[in-house]
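Give me structure tokens for this 121-residue protein.
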Amino acid sequence: MSHQCEGIVNGGERCVRIISDSERWCFGHHPDRAAERSENAAKAARAKHQGSELSQVKQELRDIAAKVLNGEVSTAKGSVVGQLLGVYLRACETEMKRREQLEFEERLQALEAEQSQERAS
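Here you go.
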């Protein structure tokens, strides 16, 4: 069976999310999940920032390509700039993979600790 979340939304009305009978609140309103919601929001903000960096580099690549094509920048300089931006993108990718790996390790450790506590109970 299921019922409606007991949480209150910004307009003062009751949350419309349907949850299981064993719960009182949905993920968005459960007080015990506040830290997790905050962490998810922080991850989203970091991802948005990385997306803007990627957009900026893509725009720079388009700009330099246009300048090479219309003769404002030599092909040699355009090639070097393109290579440097490529190196920058690979460094960003490596950083992102490392961050994801660390987050995965933290999540795994938390799950292992939780499982260990459950076994001890």
